[in-house]
């Protein structure tokens, strides 16, 4: 089983959106028995809360399930469990590296999946309100990530 973890600040907007979108794409390709997806936040403000209303509304619009998703905080044990740790912005990367405490961690910045985009971080719609912009980036980046995973692990 291949494990993917998306990380943002509070785990209610960007990372659960990416989790739901990638899960949906995995399901569509029949890879749900080979790839598992989760999300976490570096902060603890929203632990156990569902995704933000803006994220839920957008996922509903695109008929992408998100049932039973609840915010959780990123922890050191995640380094052992996940093959891909994908952070939404530079601050998330720094916080995850700090939790790693010098341990070698394979951390990927989400926007590195989309090198032709002018944005270098996924904007936080909790502050910007622009959930549609984030969805467009997440959808495109998840396509690239899934292709990468399939290539890395020779999945059909």
From TrEMBL:
InterPro entries: LMW_PTPase, Ptyr_pPase, Ptyr_pPase_sf, Tyr_phospatase_low_mol_wt. Residues 2-148 form the Phosphotyrosine protein phosphatase I domain. Keywords: Hydrolase, Protein phosphatase. Its EC number is 3.1.3.48. It is an enzyme of class 3 (hydrolase). The keyword Hydrolase applies. This is protein-tyrosine-phosphatase. The lineage of its organism: Bacteria, Bacillati, Bacillota, Bacilli, Bacillales. The keyword Hydrolase applies. The active site is at 8 (nucleophile), 14, 124 (proton donor). It comes from Paenibacillus xylanilyticus. Gene3D superfamilies: 3.40.50.2300. GO terms for molecular function: protein tyrosine phosphatase activity.
